[in-house]
Amino acid sequence: MQQTTNAIVMIRPVAFRMNEQTAVNNYYQKVLDGLLPSTVNAKAQQEFDTFVEKLRAVGVDVTVIDDNLETDTPDSIFPNNWVSFHENGDVALYPMFAENRRQERREDILDTLEEKGFEISNIMDYTSAEEDGFFLEGTGSLLLDRANAKAYCALSPRADEELFIEFCEDFDYAPVIFEAFQTVDGERKLIYHTNVMMCLGETFAVICADCIDDKKERKMVLENLKADKKEIILITEAQVNNFAGNMLEVRGANDKKYIVMSASAHQSLTPKQIAQLENHAEILSSSLDTIEACGGGSARCMMAEVFLPRN
């Protein structure tokens, strides 16, 4: 199984803003005072377009799909939470915590991929769990080590343990389960998505071990990464706040590997960490300040990786 892909789907926002429904447990979101919603959306579109240009310039196959105004989907720019695409032709659809995010799931996006020659053989639909109040938000909640058939998950209101285990059984992944915390106003609170504090590359892992308060759990997670011969690059909670955990390794032209992140994540890294990462792949960063502030997500969340077979 490949750990990285050359193909990604990205959703261009039309009414991006801070989503009040996700802000209840996404402590990275901020209100940008004095900016009109239209200004926020225009800035987000500009950041989005520049980011796509940079990815395409190095040969990443980016399928851009426009969001539509009919649905109130302020977070549609983060498609990796509602869908994942797998090498065997499976597509997984996930249950979402915020009601207004459930409308992001669009069949026409799957149709567009099929038109591009990707093969979809089966849809695994977990979305009925929403009715019972259980959630698992795609590759925000799940970090898939596809090559080693392991899935990492930091449990939270958006990542239910039983659902996660069900996913692992369906897709033949060994579950690695833990809790990750951040400090909010002096209190330790669960981090809403695993991919904020951790990134899995082919030969490396970026992780904020300090977020895993339970020492046994921390040791277990690190031992799993070491067992798979990944170089562990530790980041701090301050760097997590700059979205340094929210990176993704992708492949460009001639299978060249890139580690994609935001400018704020890149700027927060030390020279030593940058050197460690550059041993594995070239860094590609782009300014996502508005998207990060209002959306509480960053570069990795904006890219839904496509591992589907191509005809």
From TrEMBL:
Alphabetized Pfam families for the sequence: DDAH_eukar
Source organism's superkingdom? Bacteria
Full protein name:
Amidinotransferase
Q: Which organism is it from?
A: Flavobacterium saccharophilum
